[in-house]
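Q: Two folds, back to back.
A: First:
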Amino acid sequence: MTQTPSEFNADTSTESSAMADPLYREGVIDLLGVLAYNELVAFERLAADASSAPSLSDKSALALMASAEIRHFTLLAERLAELDVDPADAMAPFVDAIEEFHAQTAPSDWYESLVKAYVGDGIAADFYREIAHQLDQETRDLVLDVCGDTGHSNFAVATILAAIERDPRLAGRLALWGRRFVGEAISQAQRVAADRDGLSHMLIGDADRPGMDFADLGKMFDRLTAAHSQRMQILGLQA
């Protein structure tokens, strides 16, 4: 029988005992590494968006969000250092995949960038929160913290809704844009997990630490898709 997250937590006495499993430790390092690089890229994107923001208030809001992403990156880097891992080494395996994803989903304007951040980053955060259920308490708390909203969601929703109210034709284009990259976001998450033994082990587990079976994985991706549809509805866009 597949063990539930709460059962796993009850069976795991301490974070240090979990880290005694080399493959689990490898998975944690991979997870912190991919999250750290995502936070670094999020900072860069927010800084770029701030530079092209249409108003001073927009620029200020995005600058504050960028600073929150750097705080998240710092927390992850500090935790990796505690594990005697160079953050750069932990991030390195994920650079190409993440850069390829962003190259393939490059927005053409300010509004597409906001939709990408709200919907696309939301899918990624949902995925890593799902993985967090398989973690020891200390690591789970850190992952949930850095996957928390920096304020970008409310900002993006309010800005996009106001823009669509001014120009209803914008809704069709942004809906197509949201549908275009959601598949890429989910596929990238699957590739990242499948390409790293530690992350795969963290999700699927083994006899000592059961994780998700194939049915559970299917349900997880159904939840990711449902959450995406809900975000699109919040924006007034057809998923």
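A: Second:
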Amino acid sequence: MPLSDKTIAVIMGGPGNEREVSMASGNSVSQALSDKGATVVDLCVEDRDFELKDDVDLVFNVIHGTFGEDGSLQRILNERRVPYTGAGVTSSELAFDKGLSKKCFVENGINTPAFEFVSTDDGISPSFQKPFVIKPPKEGSSVGVHIIKEEVSITEAMEDVSKYDKIILVEEFIEGKELTVGVLNGEALPVVHIQPLSGFYDMNNKYPWLGGGEGSEYFCPAELDEETTRRVQSVAIEAHRALGIEIYSRVDVILSENDIPYVLEVNTIPGMTETSLLPKAAKANGIEFGDLCQQIVQLSMQLRKK
């Protein structure tokens, strides 16, 4: 399906903490689709108050986090009968809410770190033995994530997480390799091994150009034996399917020191610059960035015909 006769609106920005990252993704996707011959309309949005011209054939959604990844934008586009890329309303809501997605993993027998929920209103501390992780259940890019190793850091960390949500997700801390697996059209891409240069893979180490972190190194394909690679890719596909995600996603996995993969979360709108992790994995599989964007467009148009 050529793109030369298609008008595609690239929607980016959004109201959340990942706005600048979304803008970078949007600019990269816009250029790639233009290079493929599409007529591209760039739309930077804050909320539902945006206009789409009638000649738009498809919306390419690259709003990371709030509004773009939580089902809100998808619901609006469904109401307007405008096709869009990637996950739909239900799968977006499930994947974005870590509480719902982790319950879904447990119900489907998918390995995920043990967890509990703590309310900031009741003054109860987490019951896990240190170290453990606390995070807001509805944020992306490791926003508000804290690894608790000492008692004195609990109160400060909970106060920080409470800025985002009254409910805190508490997770067992799994020591191991940080991996991520892109899933495209039901198939797993090569595994990426993420190695932060300091600390853990937080917002600063993901996007050092935003927060001044030291950054991270990436190895793709990850240096894993064939059997371990197969198991990591398999659990990623299981998580993607359990949440009912359409078209593509990126699944974050911790591989424990005894080579057991644990699914942390599934990202339905992963980063989409040429150096982002999903495009990096696609390139290792012989799919250049422009071709990846084109595939996402074509698969989405087949799924959501006007």
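Q: And?
A: The mean pLDDT is 91.
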